[in-house]
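User: Structure tokens for this complex, please. No commentary.
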Amino acid sequence: MLDRTRLAVLALFGLLSMAGGPPAGAADPAEAKRSFARPVEVPFPPQNPFSAAKAAFGKALFFDPIFSASGTISCASCHHPGLAWGDGLPRAIGEARTPLALRSPTTLNLAWGELYGWDGKFPDLESVVFAPLANKANMNRDIAELIHDLNAIPGYRAMSEAAFPGGGAIDRGKIEEALATYERTIVSGQAPFDQWIDGDESAIGDAAKRGFALFVGKGECAACHGGWNLTDNAFHDIGTGGDKDFGRGRLFPGSTALQYAFKTPSLRDVAHRAPYMHDGSLSDLGAVIDLYDRGGVERPSRDSHIRRRDFSAAEKADLIAFLQTLSAEDPPTTVPRLPR
Ligand code: HEC
Ligand code: HEC
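Assistant:
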């Protein structure tokens, strides 16, 4: 879709898989496996190409609570590296200290996204940046005041000048570009699943291998959770949500298929990101598998790949074992010293 610039940032972050595809003669359904192979580089859009200085500026902004009215909430409060870049809450809690309507999604692997937000209302990462700021219940920060305050901090002026040489004062566009650039570098690491895809049969156990077969077979999970990031970046009604929780249907009231439709989340590091779904309504992976087993709420918008499955207890356990192999053991994210 996008004509993306090519940059081996994965290599820079030590995440690049050097191995090739599965070895010839592998006993597994090799075709299905190959479609899950990791990409070798992070895509950056030509209108906002990567630079290390821009990512460093964006990283400081991401961790800085200066973004909230009370000075206590940063982007990382809700997209926390220790919680697989979510917040571990059913629904996000911002300045209003009461739960918002939605759960904080992970910011992992967003460079590969297409539309953003559970309902896809944001066309790109840049356009998400000021939404939580302006939202009273979220960060509730006056944008003009924030820009003024950032410009008053010499360290931020220097970071901005390094990121945008000769660009002058910090403004909205620079903040959006820097934050989006940093977010695109948030990439999930090598998981046991990746090693298995690369041909190491001992990387995951037998239960997980059976779970994978269910994931691409009987469960039809891969119809939506396909590719290395385990998402089609599309919107489906899988039978979650309450009567008035229309998801993407709110933006497209005339479309039957988009009623109650939410974005398919990546399943990378999913075991570390409970509770689940756009509304945090399912407390653990067992509850998620039970939902798919039942087929969720039956209604005209429900996706054709969602229906009653009658999984056995062993099949449910195998699916969960597979989902657990998608977790990477990454070196901890460092938090930058924030300019003041
Ligand atoms: C109070 C918690 C909270 C804070 C603070 C917060 N977010 Fe979020 N974030 C959310 C929620 C909830 C959503 C889902 C919004 C939606 O779908 O409309 C979200 C969605 C996103 C998305 C879209 C992800 C996707 O999968 O589509 C991005 C990107 C993002 N936030 C970045 C940021 C940045 C950058 C900041 C700081 C400027 C920030 N967030 C601050 C809770 C938060
Ligand atoms: C029709 C497309 C589709 C199919 C098929 C599908 N999913 Fe999903 N999956 C989604 C969507 C959309 C969501 C988010 C729904 C929401 O937020 O209400 C989701 C959410 C999830 C979540 C929660 C992730 C999170 O961060 O909240 C898990 C785990 C999951 N799916 C696993 C599976 C498994 C296992 C299967 C097969 C048994 C499967 N999915 C089949 C589209 C699908």
